[in-house]
Request: fold
Amino acid sequence: MSQESAFASASQRAAAEHRHLLAALALVRQALVRHCARCRGEEEPALQQQESDPSRLEQSLTAAASALPGPAPLQRLCSAFGLSSFERDLLLLCAGVELDSSFAGLCAQAMGQPASDRSQAALPTFSLALAALPDAHWDAITPEAPLRRWQLLVLGGGPILTMTPLRIDEPILHYLIGLPYHDPRLSLLTPVVPVAGELLPSQQRACVRLRAAWSEQRASSSPWSGPGQQRWPLIILAVPQEQDGLRLAARACQELGLRLSALTATDLPGTLSELEQWARLWERQAMLTGSALLLDCNRLTAEDRSTRQAIGHLARLLQTPLILSCREAATLRLALAPTSLVSIELEPLPLAEQEQLWRRALSALSVAVDLNGHIDSLAMQFPLGEAAIERVCAQLLPEPAPLELSADEVAQRLWHVCRLQARPALDDLAQRLTPTADWEQLVLPDEQQRLLHEIVAHVRQRATVYERWGFGRQGARGLGISALFAGSSGTGKTLAAEIIAHELQLDLYRIDLSAVVSKYIGETEKNLRRIFDAAEAGGAVLLFDEADALFGKRSEVKDSHDRYANIEVGYLLQRMETYRGLAILTTNLKHALDPAFLRRLRFIVHFPFPDVAMRLEIWRRIFPPDLPRENLDLEKLARLHVAGGNIRNIALYGAFLAAEAGESLHMSHLLRAAAVEYAKLEKPLTEAEIGGWP
Reply:
């Protein structure tokens, strides 16, 4: 259908719906006229026009309804809320006052208002409706009857219920006359528009499950199903990327003929009464527009207990379609007690599907360079969803245009943007280190150097080994690359992590495990879950300091604390084994770690305390080429029995002393620096170390 014909069709439908509403209002107006005549003592009003005859008005209403391709707004509203003919006419009476100036005058006349006062509009009352409208019944105005339960009518103030002025709720009036239905009290809702395009196989399978969960209810209910209908099954949609969850839900709803609106869970009203009011208004809108609600729970934290309670209460209140979107279904199940619940959990997209998304997004931007050698590396390192990949590719648009860049330059820019997009979430949870160190700065025995280079190789070659050679198809467990760096302070553990991150062009985040571990049962796992979830998309290198805070020898369970400590360790190791980046643990006390836990790590690198030869090499490399120095005896410096980190501290401290004195660095500056460093270590400088120094 062309745009012009679609517009003409919409205009014709709007005109037909308007005629239907006018015909319905005419019947109510005629009932008012007849009531006013009876109030004047007349049996029947003097009809001025043949068209005002009730039977002719009924025929006009029937004709207007038959001219419509589907139910008119008034008919949909009556069906959705189960209105009786009297309740419908009472609603129309209140709408008529807003739409037709003659209604207010008739109401004033019917309620006995003097003619001299009729210039002021009069609102209808329930007493007037009982007297003037056919098939009247008292229970239409009770709190649980549709008109008040769904707030179709708003009661004014007044001591007598039947004499209280009545008004139609403004959004309902707009709905009746065909204007866009918008309730300002639901302003935080966001309409979700389905994205065109073919679903990936894993997405399609999830979409089929969601449709199947609701299709039986959809088939047994009209699009405007009202009170008394069976509750729709609650859906928990667990998706690694929240935007992909929105897209998936929108597509499933579209195929079911439902609209979808989204709300962030933390925006739910705070008090129970406010929540119930909000739920009633949302359900009213959902029933009128055929809509489902997606509640975004991805940002919930362990501290959001009140929000979890609100989610559970909302799930029990609503009978209309509800989807709870989160990363892990288990985080919500405890808060829910619905009559029916369906959990749909998506694993991260397979590598082949991620590569398909990368090619699709780059093709849409007319990026024609051959990136086949790079896309698999991007997909393996950064497990992004569809929306995230599109955002990354869109950032290629600034000058210079992608068409002017080589394949390596485009890949490098994509890699950089992928790193950046995960930073906001991780920066709130861990300390980001800026890795600039290179291999020249690290002095270790050959075996340790070889192990560190092999860690880099394992990260770089994951796509080849796991995907092309098929090891990844044997199961996700053990595919994560985990390492333990063990050694005393200052032996280079953090420096090695920085060098690896710099070599791999990845962000490095340091997490102090002693700060993550909580005395409250279950809180440690929640803290770790937040860190790993945030890190997944950015492919960051995670450096867990103080591993002995969690990895003590607890395999022998003596009490509940030991049991839960083992659970915490097991959770961390499980996440490390499946994490698609590199996770490194550091410890000063390897002997304090349980061997059973250590066997689950892929790499264990021991950082020895440097001997004299290693210390000499560290001193040779520690001074920058631009540093002015004079008569430094590196062999004497190597006699200082300290680790590499302490050597750097001494060199830096001495450089500041030399700069302040306006001199080149010489041994006297380093002697003073060594004394300060040894004082921090709480050990004395011995004659064997500094004998013969100037």
Summary: The chain has five domains: 3-182, 190-198+207-345, 353-421, 439-606, 612-690.
